[in-house]
Amino acid sequence: xxxxxxxxxxxxxxxxxxxxxxxxxxxxxxxxxxxxxxxxxxxxxxxxxxxxxxxxxxxxxxxxxxxxxxxxxxxxxxxxxxxxxxxxxxxxxxxxxxxxxxxxxxxxxxxxxxxxxxxxxxxxxxxxxxxxxxxxxxxxxxxxxxxxxxxxxxxxxxxxxxxxxxxxxxxxxxxxxxxxxxxxxxxxxxxxxxxxxxxxxxxxxxxxxxxxxxxxxxxxxxxxxxxxxxxxxxxxxxxxxxxxxxxxxxxxxxxxxxxxxxxxxxxxxxxxxxxxxxxxxxxxxxxxxxxxxxxxxxxxxxxxxxxxxxxxxxxxxxxxxxxxxxxxxxxxxxxxxxxxxxxxxxxxxxxxxxxxxxxx
Length: 360
Known about the structure:
By secondary structure, the chain is of the alpha+beta class. It folds into three domains: 2-95, NusA, N-terminal domain (N Utilization Substance Protein A, Chain:P, domain 4, 2-Layer Sandwich), CATH 3.30.1480.10; 104-164, CATH 2.40.50.140; 168-332, K homology (KH) domain (GMP Synthetase, Chain A, domain 3). 32% of the residues lie in helices and 25% in strands. The strands form four sheets. It has a five-stranded antiparallel β-sheet with strand order 5-4-3-6-7. Strands 11-12-13-14 form a four-stranded mixed β-sheet.
């Protein structure tokens, strides 16, 4: 029995990553609590569990002879051990995941509860709330799923790990996973604007003049970008060449539409863009999606007009003009997840900013 107890303690140590000493101490405290429940809490009890032999010795300041703990006291010991080990396991999980916010994790869907997805991510369960799910994505128990850790917090004695599929960081981490130049910091992702499930614009820059940032992200015959769009269930991705010049960045962000002219008002951060009439629909995009994402990506309130048309600016779901976000882009504070309208999902991936480099 004693050797079996030692084997159980060793198994818990390896499986739950709980220190063996903590397990021994927990058992000793549980036995003290059980005995005091039988003889009285005012009685001083000392309990020692030998670390090598597994022998349990109990001493007291008073003589009580042999003590039959009974069912209730034994149940008390069991509850103390279970709760203490659960608390210790939660502490280990919290310590492991609290520093991993923003990290990409791969898990398996366990179940669906009220629209939220419960995901097994190894030693813990995490949750993707309904608000952090991409509209239209369907999952079943057993499905593999990737998501970003957005929050790790304690709720009572439990640890709650929140995942997201709508965060722009998901796109960033997928590029780091699929494009070695991004993970090696040869290619920098400067800004991201995203409407989850529909379209993303991502501005990239190469720190090495010998490396084509757009071509590297696309990969040979589009293999790299295809792996990313497959993980995003067909979400369209526009890869844009970054420019420190605002006017060049705006032109790149609005491609493949051709720009006739643009007028930038620095004080108001408004950019009035004129395009040929036959390019107007392309520049605005389906339900304003192209100009809306370009506005978020560049930080300028882009107003588009055809040569003979009235101005068209990016608008939100209520029809109000959508101004540029405060501060920097996603990588420095952009809220790129608010979708205006419900644009239809597209299947292709388009590379903009370099007309000759397009993925299939």
